[in-house]
Amino acid sequence: MMIDRRLIQEIDWILLGLILLQSLVGVVFIYSSSHVLPGAYHVRQLIWIGISLLVLILVLVIDYKFFVSLSVYFYGLMVVLLAATLGFARLVAGTKSWITLGLMQLQPSELAKIVMILIFARFFAEYKRPYLTTRVTLWALLVAGVPLLLIIAQPDLGTAMTFVAVIGGAFILAGLRRKAIVLFVLAALLVGVGGWTIALKDYQKKRVTTLINPAGDPRGSGYQVIQSKIAIGSGGFAGKGFLKGSQSQLRFLPARHTDFIFSVIGEETGFIGVFIVIVLYFALLARMFLSVNKARDRAGIYIIFTASLLIAFQFLVNILMIIGLFPVVGITLPFLSYGGSSLLASYVACGLVLNVKMRRFANV
Amino acid sequence: MPEDRIYEDLTIVRRRANVVFWILAALVFFALAFYWKIQILEHQKYAGMAEANRIRMRVLAAPRGLIRDRKGVILADNRASFKVSLIRENIKDQAASYAAITRLLGIDEPTLRSRIDLHKDLQLFEPIVIVDGLGPDDVAPIESRRLEFPELVVETEPQRYYPQGTLAAHVLGYLQEQTPEEIRARPERKIRVGEMVGKTGVERQYDDILRGEDGAVYEVVDSLGRVQGEKAHSNPIQGQDVLLTIDQRLQAEAEKALEGREGVIIALDAGTGGILALASSPTYDPNRFITRFTPDEWRLLMNDALSPLENRAIRGLYAPGSIFKLVMSLGGLGFGFVTPETSVYCSGSTEIYGAVRHCWFAPGHGSMDLANAIKNSCNIYFYTLGRRMGIEKIAEAASLLGLGKATGVDLIGEKEGLVPSEEWKMKTLKTPWYPGETISVAIGQGQLQVTPLQIAAMTALIARRGAPAHPHLLKDAVAPGPADPAAPQPFNKTTFEAIIAGMWKSVNDGGTGQGARVADFDVCGKTGSTQTMSRESAARLAQAGRETKTHSWFSGFAPRDGSRIVVTVLVEFGGGGGATAAPVAGRIFEMFRQELQEK
Q: How far is B123 from chain A (nearest CA, A)?
């Protein structure tokens, strides 16, 4: 399938530019936070950006409708993959460290996010009623529930939460009645309370209690949040300067090139840096979200909305998490945090948005 | 409108998407406001916390438990020593700093760098130990120039100290720093980086008892590493003491007797099996190794051809020589091949399986019964007995007396030795057993291999008239098995008395063991001299004017009835057992007798 000249003209170059800009800012601060470690993380991240960009171009070449039509097969594949990962992960859990295990888990569950975007686009493409009926709601819950449960069982709380956000977004778009909202809230509460007492592991519980009182355990799980807040707060207005953050450079900050990359930015560039990155990020999100007004069909709107929500949710949770406004759930900052599979998933999501936007004229 | 027909009405969906976006936008604004609050409004507070936020954990090393002898004499102690650590963060000029350190502390720069490299993953403000085991005089130049070297920290730590020097080195063992891999392999032991743990001997065997529990201080340090306060404090708990069966005076005497020779002396408490003395020579000073650094001396010891680090008592494998005649006698009587009265005529040589075999006493011993055969260590008698018994019965007797298997002493690395048999030879050498080999085994040669401790344990079993003794070092150890175990079948008390009669004669009636005689102490024993090379090579060397010496054995106990002590002596290349080992054993018996009288 060759790409038309007109299609290339229709690519949202501004959005693509913003994505690349954020990625490069990420590389700079990955360098700052990891240059003392062996492994050249910033170089590896640059390679991943290149790979992700190539995949994004591949995504653009093919009409999103083709992806949507194939989404059922993707879905089947995803469920099998998640189940296989679960079996495998269980097997190695005793011997491998959580980092290696995390990498193995991350791969399929990151992919699953993209598949969910596509499957919901297909599911709701022909749904023209103003509100969701009970029957459709239950079907949608079933479709979303299977991979969600598999991810919860891993257990990967961060990814599961992102999943819930994407699913919830799709439901909101399809139209939820007030009655249904109340029901969902009640169900969520029930699952929450039940999950707390039954399913949550001790370390996960600790993260929630830490949110409420981080000083309660300053050397344990509250440590990360306290150190992160100190890093950001001590950055002040103009920051301590590139490579000069004592919190980051002295290794007080944990996971500082992955989940806590924004703390490094906050410490070394101060509020100015935080402001610029957040505003640019907001511009990126706005550019993505507002593309819904350009989509030519319902499937396109669902794709744009859920893909944008995926990025926006992770962004918000991450920047709130590192200043103690959200539990530490292991959600990365898309485009900025170090990590190949997360970067790839974010690029593919953006690729889908660009794809829908450039094919907004039906006759092309 | 014509558009409506091409595009469906998507306004509701679009509107919802826009609403969600603006809610998210509000949240982003809220987040931004919160960053403003933390970074601008509360900046002072967090800046202060960042400055003070340097919690340094300092380990308070727990002293190891003491090791004492049976009378409470301290064999392994602790003493305060100084260690110097480097805080990389405080280095102003690395080259100048390293140069000063090498000058002040007398270590070379490659050593310093490799030490720092080993711990490069630690945080920059965390101290790395670069020298330890220093005395107060060694650290004085650093202490006096504290301001000049903010990167150096001097601290005290308890360090192992062996007040008796080389005494009982092989019993005590030594300590070594564990490698990061070893620490990771056993996380439940909670060994801290840089901790010295038992590598061999009692230090290793009872490491879990001797190791205490480390304490820790959490200190808040400022950006210059100055301590600003304490966050938490837990005191170290010293490890428990270990009381050994060793008798320090006897041990010292044993070591003195072996000075300048290679060999082993073992003294067992005949009543309990407790090891009174265990000397293995040459030896080493464990004080030399209580450092995290490998001195050249260590390498020298490791590569020394005489292997001073090896505990010969449990790891040295020797042919038992004529000591094995005790096994032959017990087996011969027990299995009914001979009676104490059976006599064999020794003319100095005999022909067995077509080969002429010689007794060690060329003129011949004449007519020999069992007791006299033991007394004179007559080869001809035991050749004859060996031919009657055959290798299988010999092996069975040896096995019943504890040869060919570990004694189970509480020391790591004990060897099992070897008692050859037809089956063993077929399995390992893939050749059948030749009857001639049985004749060699009958006088303790051939493929037979024993450790000195096995011989000591066997001698104790004889002294106890068949009740097995379990050699051990831990004084409070509960002896495994019944308190007064029965003799292994088919031996009984009279079998043992018959053999003991021979052993008594050997020492007290002009036999080969007379050098071990102690007045009024009724020593019973057996000598042994083992060939360390073939008869032909020995003859060739003798022709060349070179003296070839055999390993010299003596093993015995005293007194004959109600025996108190078992002594086994092995002197490598000591010559005849009667000439060398027996007098050495006599010294130990004499010393023990004096100690008994002092009580």
A: 7
